[in-house]
Write a structure and sequence with these properties.
The protein is of the alpha/beta class and about 600 residues long. The chain has two domains: about 450 residues, Alpha-Beta Barrel (TIM Barrel); about 130 residues, Malate synthase G - maily-beta sub-domain. The chain contains 22 helices and 24 strands. Strand 15 and strand 16 form a beta hairpin. Helix 9 packs across helix 10 and helix 10 runs parallel beside helix 12.
Length: about 600
Amino acid sequence: MTNYKKTGNLQVASELYEFINMEVLPGSGVNQEQFWNGFEGIVDDLTPKNQELLKARSEMQKKIHAWHRENPSGEFTSYKAFLEGIGYLEDESEDFTITTENVDDEVAVQAGPQLVVPVNNARYALNAANARWGSLYDALYGTDVISEENGAHRSGGYNPVRGEKVIAFGRDFLDQTVPLKEGSHKDAAQYQVSNGKLAVVLSNGNVTGLADEKKFAGLQGDPEDPSAVLLENNGLHLEIQIDRAHPIGKIDAAGVKDILLEAALSTIMDCEDSVSAVDAEDKVAVYRNWLGLMKGDLTASFEKGGKTLTRTMNPDRTYQGPDGTSFTLPGRSLMFVRNVGHLMSINAVLDKDGEEIQEGILDAVVTGLIAKHSLNSNAKYQNSIKGSIYIVKPKMHGSKEAGFANELFSRVEDLIGLERNTLKIGLMDEERRTSLNLKACIREVKERIAFINTGFLDRTGDEMHTSMEAGPMIRKNEMKASAWLNAYEKSNVNNGLASGFQGRAQIGKGMWAMPDMMADMVKQKIGHVKSGANTAWVPSPTAATLHALHYHQVNVFEVQRNLLDQIKDLRDEILQIPVAENPIWNPVKFSRSLIITHKEFLAM
């Protein structure tokens, strides 16, 4: 049984109460009495509004089910008029531009991968935080991006045949991304810096430089014999690491031991989909790791190779610029936190009537308070250079629910002493009513919005749930090529660009859910970049490193500029219900499709 502490009219689970009082509030600048009184006020004022929104959801869904039963033909004009009549389809005629301020470069002006990781696993969370930089050689060697043909197997110790393939891939990448005026990086015998420019000595004795000298960004070590050469392309950095004593460097003509890529620009520390936190004990574990990340003191110890290793957060990286001055680049991914949506309640806190409070309210208050530490001087590292806190809000249905999130965030800011719109919102476009009314949803949070993001699984699930009375739905493989899904993905980008996201906020795409299939990811996920999304989700640091290649191949912001002239309303296409016509399915295959393993589920 849960033991509760009474504070005002709230009952707070003992472990959560002690955690907030003893670990979170100290150093936050928030008084304990002020906090609990203010929290109670938020619960009292916003719980009825939250519940009213959920009631509206349910009633609207009942009307949709009834309409489909009464109109089996599903005539489109009548269907659309019905949705408008019940308020499901909102008026989006008013144009506007978002005004979000103090957005970090990783969100606003850089394009690159975004990791999503369960925050209740400290080791995973630290791996993700440290995935800002990733070894291209390791990512290639350990995955199927490099084939095992002709003796290039991965098993056993180091395989020089495979190593040669990795190095060749790396040199090809350099030639495509930061080409030389003359020759190839494959012919490099030495990298030097002379008069603020990169000088490359080739195997034939000639000295050349970069075709675009502005891509040289800095170095580490002696300019005549640097240990690292920093380059920049499409706003992303890469580092040629040089060490002639290293096992790889000593067999490389130029002493190159690795190519380090700026990879996961941002990471979503997840309290929702990838986490099961059902009570106070679970929530404290989640919140404690988030606190460690925000203070910069989270550690994780584990056994590897017979040794105990302890992982901590990486420091920033220091370089000497072309002009000789020193500068730093972030060593860690910019961290978001994903709260739960408006639906769930939790018994970690009971309200004045002894009822569970809404979990989304609890998450907003506690994760916001915790993140304030990253803005204070008591944090080892500052997460946001611009002084913002990034909270992802999932599973909202329509603009009124987005507006409620905006009100909740404002109340949290007032409670914990933050300026208005310090809490930035990441708006997940994963519910049908949000997709159809995305412009109106963005308008409700236009002063604090930091990203919009699509997702195949959640969005497809809601597509089916909303229209299940219309008939059996097409299968997964057909769903990916369906009219509504393609329109949904395009509409998300269109609405972001039309609302002024370029240079101010992220437009994101969903997860690559097959972490063992990196060769396929490298072939396919570039489509997200070409669609105009300046971020897309990846499941691991290795995937982040490999997905970073795509942002070097395609300048997303040029794509976005071209798309600005092609924006159109796609809501009629999104409304095309993916009902299967005359489905004839093999009963054996159909029954097997209902019995899936966890791995198969992740691959869906």
